[in-house]
């Protein structure tokens, strides 16, 4: 399957092996191969509603995804799942354990799911995530659920990839002060309090309600939904809020916008790094310099004869 | 840091420049003895591999579907219930029907010596039993992963 044309053709007609191999190239392929795949896929991208699900480790993200993916599939939607898990900082290996919580549902409904290791990336995603989303988008997925690595207060990458960001929390994680902290609490479009069958979950709901009540009344009204896998409760409501938010961003015409901007920034940074910064660093290393870094940057920019970027 | 006497360390640890081996651990069929497979999962992780485990009681179809969707290099099958000749063969049949030849399959569990040639003939290698050093298993998986990688590049 080294013929990229055939591979992309397979992705577009939603052939599982082609999708899986294309995502592998996004994970491990050389820049040239990724570029070729993206060139051929790009015209098929931009339709999927990307839903990011983040929250602390062990809060129930994977189980939640297993349950809502089924409800979405039952509505006749083409659903797929990407789940990122942590790589070992010692060995580079990873135990990709998200699948095991959701696979029974996936098997029953033939939902495509792929596990990705974060491979040392900080921020909750892997570097390959963007490419994998584009492959799934081109394969005809209408809704792509992305599970981040178990997240802390500052693992915020998902906000730049997902159209809808859902923060899953549970009872006992903090009080009102915790709820108005900067960082991950701000990036959620929707909140979930999971494990509603456990004591303290209604206090957690209340704390989030209070945060939401302080939101700017213009724009989308953020919501909090309580769910419980034990009682299989709250999932219908959650799915409806997800679809509501999807309709809102479609209405605003901004589906895929964040993903496009982040993709553009990533590629620009890596290409400019490769073509301009890497050779400049080589010269600095070889010849040495007593100039300070700001002066070096100015020199490089003036030599590039650019100054102002006029058009793309 | 983990890594006892029999553990093999992963390499190039902090840079993530090399593609890690992706291995799927599976116990297809009716067998709930998962202690061994969990020990292997951690040992493979510590050896620098990306490890998936299908959990208890998947069907052979589930195992092959997962291997395809995750694009793994190696499927590592384990059974301690004596059904290896039937169930491992089923996995190989499904793979054959789907035309998959770029995923290596290894086996393990309580497999009598006299069954091993039959499994080998199906393309299932290793077939290690209790007491095998983890380093032996890891080396074998690495070797079979390399074979699969070469086939994927065709």
Describe the structure.
The complex is a heterodimer of chains A (312) and B (154). Chain A is an alpha/beta fold and 312 residues long. Chain A has two domains: 46-255, P-loop containing nucleotide triphosphate hydrolases (Rossmann fold); 262-304. In chain A, 48% of the residues lie in helices and 13% in strands. Chain A contains twelve helices and eight strands. Chain A has helices spanning 4-12, 16-28, 31-41, 61-74, 99-109, 129-138, 176-179, 184-187, 201-213, 235-252, 257-287, 293-303; strands spanning 49-54, 79-85, 94-95, 112-117, 143-147, 164-169, 190-193, 223-226. Chain A has a seven-stranded parallel sheet with strand order 4-2-5-1-6-7-8, sandwiched between helices. In chain A, helix 1 packs across helix 3 and helix 2 (16-28) packs antiparallel against helix 6. The longest helix of chain A is centred in the C-terminal third of the chain and has 31 residues, at 257-287. Chain A is globular. Chain A starts with a helix and ends in a 9-residue tail after the last helix. Chain B has a five-stranded parallel sheet, sandwiched between helices. Helix content of chain B is 41%, strand content 19%. In chain B, helix 3 (84-97) links the parallel strand 3 (74-79) and strand 4 (104-109). Chain B is of the alpha/beta class. Chain B contains five helices and five strands, in the order E-H-E-H-E-H-E-H-E-H. In chain B, helix 2 (60-70) packs across helix 3 (84-97). Chain B has a single domain, classed as 3-Layer(aba) Sandwich (Rossmann fold). Chain B has helices spanning 35-46, 60-70, 84-97, 116-122, 134-152, and strands spanning 22-27, 50-56, 74-79, 104-109, 124-128. Strand 3 of chain A pairs parallel with strand 2 (50-56) of chain B.
């Amino acid at each position: 399957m080294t013929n990229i044309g055939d591979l992309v053709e397979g992705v577009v007609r939603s052939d599982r092996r082609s999708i899986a191999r294309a995502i592998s190239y996004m994970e491990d392929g050389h820049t040239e191969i990724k570029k070729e795949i993206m060139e051929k896929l790009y015209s098929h991208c931009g339709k999927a509603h990307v839903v990011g699900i983040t929250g602390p480790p062990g809060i129930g993200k994977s189980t939640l995804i297993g349950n809502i993916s089924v409800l979405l599939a039952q509505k006749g939607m083409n659903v797929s799942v990407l789940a990122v898990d942590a790589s070992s900082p010692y060995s580079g290996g990873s135990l990709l354990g998200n699948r095991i919580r959701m696979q029974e549902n996936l098997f029953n409904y033939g939902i495509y799911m792929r596990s990705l290791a974060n491979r040392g990336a900080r921020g909750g995603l892997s570097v390959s995530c963007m490419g994998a989303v584009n492959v799934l988008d081109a394969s005809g997925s209408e809704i792509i659920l992305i599970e981040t690595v178990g997240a802390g207060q500052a693992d915020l990458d998902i906000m730049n990839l997902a159209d809808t960001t859902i923060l899953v929390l549970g009872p006992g994680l903090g009080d009102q002060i915790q709820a108005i902290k900067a960082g991950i609490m701000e990036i959620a479009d929707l909140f979930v309090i999971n494990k509603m069958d456990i004591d303290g979950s209604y206090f957690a709901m209340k704390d989030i309600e209070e945060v939401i009540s302080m939101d700017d009344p213009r724009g989308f009204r953020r919501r909090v939904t309580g769910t419980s896998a034990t009682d299989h409760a709250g999932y219908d409501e959650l799915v409806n809020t997800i679809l509501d938010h999807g309709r809102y961003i479609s209405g605003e015409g901004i589906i895929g916008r964040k993903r496009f901007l982040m993709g553009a920034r990533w590629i620009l940074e890596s290409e400019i790094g490769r073509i301009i910064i890497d050779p400049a660093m080589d010269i600095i290393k070889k010849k040495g310099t007593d100039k300070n870094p700001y002066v070096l940057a100015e020199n490089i920019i003036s030599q590039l004869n650019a100054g102002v970027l006029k058009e793309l | 840091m983990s890594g006892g006497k029999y553990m093999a360390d992963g390499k190039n640890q902090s840079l993530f420049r090399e593609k890690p081996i992706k291995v799927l651990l599976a116990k297809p069929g009716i067998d709930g003895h998962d202690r061994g497979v969990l020990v292997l999962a951690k040992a493979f992780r510590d050896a620098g591999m990306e490890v998936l485990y299908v959990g208890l009681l998947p069907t052979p179809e589930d195992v092959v579907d997962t291997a395809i969707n995750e694009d793994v290099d190696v499927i590592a099958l384990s059974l301690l219930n004596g059904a290896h000749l039937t169930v491992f063969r089923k996995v190989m049949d499904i793979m054959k029907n789907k035309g998959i030849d770029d995923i290596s399959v290894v086996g393990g569990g309580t497999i009598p010596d006299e069954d091993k040639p039959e499994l080998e003939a199906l393309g299932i290698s290793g077939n290690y039993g209790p007491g095998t050093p983890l380093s032996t298993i890891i080396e074998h998986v690495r070797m079979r992963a390399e074979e699969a990688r070469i086939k994927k590049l065709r």
